[in-house]
Amino acid sequence: MGELPLQVRALVARSGVRLDDVQALAVSVGPGSFTGLRIAIAFAKGLAFAGDVPVAAVSTLEALAVVAAASPGERVCAALDARKGEIYAALFEAGVGGALARLTPDAVWQPAALAAACGAGGVVVGDAPDVYAHAFAGMTVRPFASHHPRGDVVARLGAARLVAGADTPLAALEPAYVRAPDAKLPDNPLR
Prior knowledge:
The protein is α/β, with parallel strands linked by helices. Helix content is 33%, strand content 21%. The radius of gyration is 18 Å and the shape is globular. The relative contact order is 0.19.
């Protein structure tokens, strides 16, 4: 058995509930690590199918923006290093009570363009400032070590989606890679 099922089993045992008690699931769908996303989503699909429970897909960047704990009116730039000189990011505006208004979809950005879109008064959260410090100089940076996407945040965001009736059909539950894959099939594989 892999590490993830063992961790879930231990968590369920510590919480005093059984897997049969689970009424819904939420899963972070990316952007992020190809392998990590595939494993987490496949596991969530298996649990959802076996338990006949709804599942909500949650953007990793949205979960990251929530932990920025920005003040109302502040622009939040959730930014993860995408390697290759690029950043996975989305912009949000913080509202009253921690509510976030999405300003952009999850996308791949060049560091300078993202910094310009975020603005001098923006709050940046994620690991991108560790790699591209020059682009975010002078901005408020929430360190990734203490401000990272957490399971409880994904669960709360997923619960809100499910209450709003926005569950994700299992067949449509896929990783949100944001960037096109580097590997491509040949145009005509029969040649």
